[in-house]
């Protein structure tokens, strides 16, 4: 069964996929010690594993984009999983920021010259894109449209 999704859903999955993959690659490149010049401006630290996570999220969105572009129902599932993964990573990064901020109040001597923005990560502002997407399309995306076939059923 095929379904044609609107241009907004397809564009969202493409935009989110490209941004996550791009920021993940910059994370990895910075982690390898290559200065891209983007790290200070976009709050991208050198973090190979964090970059890999962003690339995986981007790949999930891009697979959903490809399938939605072809009109396959399963594409929306990939977009849902991408949104879920991005929101989980955003929450983890926010908890890390909050923990560091709380620690700076408890042990202020260890955090002299430290700013909370040092723990700000692209996963936070990219997660806001996913949050906006799920709030905007909460009634449009439907798992009821996805057909699941079981073997032997």
Detail the topology: elements first, then pairings.
Layout: H1 7-31, H2 39-42, H3 48-69, H4 75-106, H5 122-136
Total DSSP helices:
5
Strand content: under 5%
Number of strands: 0
Shape: elongated
Biggest sheet architecture: none
Q: What is the number of domains?
A: 1
Structural class: mainly alpha
Low-confidence stretches: 146-153
Order of helical and strand elements: HHHHH
Transmembrane segments: 12-29, 41-65, 77-99, 119-137
Keywords: Membrane, Transmembrane, Transmembrane helix
Structure, explained:
- This protein is 64% helix and 0% strand.
- By secondary structure, the chain is mostly helical.
- Helix 4 packs across helix 5.
- The longest helix is centred in the middle third of the chain and has 32 residues, at 75-106.
- The protein is elongated.
In summary, what is this structure?
With 153 residues, the protein is mostly helical.
Question: Which terms summarize this structure?
Answer:
single chain; 153 residues; mainly alpha; 5 helices; disordered C terminus; transmembrane; transmembrane helix; membrane
